[in-house]
């Protein structure tokens, strides 16, 4: 039997969740761009007139400037979501700055076109409402974690979140970038990473931090990472692979709850979910 045709936008899970009649509302307005690490998608107080969908292993981060060169991360967004005019209708000043953390391809569209698609399709509107709820949950949990938990657990939470989005043990993040995400100094983060390396949880390489044992890392982390994952499963029908990567979300008819999802799926199902 011939295999099913792949979804035309399978690189982004939000888009891949939509039926073809719904994706047809967005497809004419989606434009592919390539971004390098460090590219700024929008800055504080700029009008956010576009929605950006990271593809595959492209990862962006929303950061709040604290003055000088200091920043702190509020949310990390990869192929499971979108940034820009997602919650609002676009053309509103940005409260955060969005920076590309892991370079790669994105799809971009005018926020007004997304607004039109939401009006035309209750399913599209419902999907983005539920995603906005999950994004807000991630932001709120990040705030709580930064206020209440030790730096070692905050580092592990952040690394696990990145692994959820790229699905690899070798995380392409430098110590300088990680320090910037957490709003701490480079010397401080070096000591924290050294402690975690001595515990056998990570290995710090050149431009990479290697996750050595995800199960032990999850056990050593605070409950913030697991709580956000649980919310994504409950609200967005998220499916996670055994290595932690989020590999699918679900679009449903408004008022219909997503199907209950297991904590992990088998590798063969993961391949068909791409």
In quaternary terms, these chains amount to: single chain
Give helix and strand order, one letter per element, not per position.
HHEEEEEEEEEEHHHEHHEEHHEEH
Per DSSP, the total helix count is 10
Give the uncertain stretches in residue-range form: 264-274
Morphology: globular
- Give the structural class: alpha+beta
Nearest-integer average pLDDT: 89
Main pleated-sheet profile: 4 strands, antiparallel
User: What share of the residues lie within helices?
Assistant: 40-55%
Q: What's the count of strands? A: 15
N- to C-terminal distance: 19 Å
Spatial order of the strands forming the largest sheet: 1-10-4-7
Strand content range? 15-25%
- Report the radius of gyration as a whole number of Å: 18 Å
Describe it for me?
The chain has 274 residues and is α+β, with helices and mostly antiparallel strands. It is built from ten helices and 15 strands. The protein has helices spanning 13-16, 20-26, 111-120, 122-148, 151-166, 175-182, 186-198, 214-220, 224-236, 267-273, and strands at 31-35, 40-42, 47-48, 50-54, 59-67, 70-77, 83-84, 92-93, 97-102, 104-110, 170-171, 202-205, 208-211, 239-240, 246-248. A hairpin with a 5-residue loop joins strand 14 and strand 15.
């Amino acid at each position: 039997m011939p295999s099913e045709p792949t979804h035309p936008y399978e690189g982004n899970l939000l888009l891949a969740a939509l039926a073809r009649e719904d994706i047809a509302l967005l497809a004419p307005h989606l434009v592919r761009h390539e971004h390098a690490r460090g590219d700024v998608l929008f800055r504080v107080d700029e009008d956010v007139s576009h929605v950006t969908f990271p593809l595959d292993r492209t990862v962006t981060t929303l950061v709040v400037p604290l003055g000088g060169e200091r920043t702190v991360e509020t949310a990390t967004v990869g192929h499971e979501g979108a940034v820009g005019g997602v919650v609002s209708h676009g053309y509103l000043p940005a409260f955060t700055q969005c920076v590309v953390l892991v370079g790669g391809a994105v799809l971009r569209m005018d926020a007004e076109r997304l607004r039109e698609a939401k009006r035309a399709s209750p399913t599209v509107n419902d999907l983005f409402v539920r995603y906005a709820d999950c994004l807000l949950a991630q932001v709120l949990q990040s705030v709580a974690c930064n206020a209440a938990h030790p730096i070692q657990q905050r580092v592990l939470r952040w690394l696990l979140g990145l692994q959820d989005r790229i699905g690899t043990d070798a995380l392409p993040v430098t110590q300088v970038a990680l320090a910037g995400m957490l709003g701490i100094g480079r010397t401080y983060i070096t000591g924290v990473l050294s402690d975690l390396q001595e515990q056998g949880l990570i290995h710090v390489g050149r431009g990479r931090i290697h996750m050595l044992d995800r199960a032990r890392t999850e056990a050593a982390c605070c409950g913030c990472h697991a709580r956000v994952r649980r919310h994504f499963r409950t609200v967005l029908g998220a499916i996670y692979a055994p290595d932690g990567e989020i590999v699918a979300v679900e679009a449903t008819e408004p008022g219909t709850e997503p199907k209950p999802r297991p904590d992990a799926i088998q590798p063969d199902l993961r391949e068909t979910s791409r």
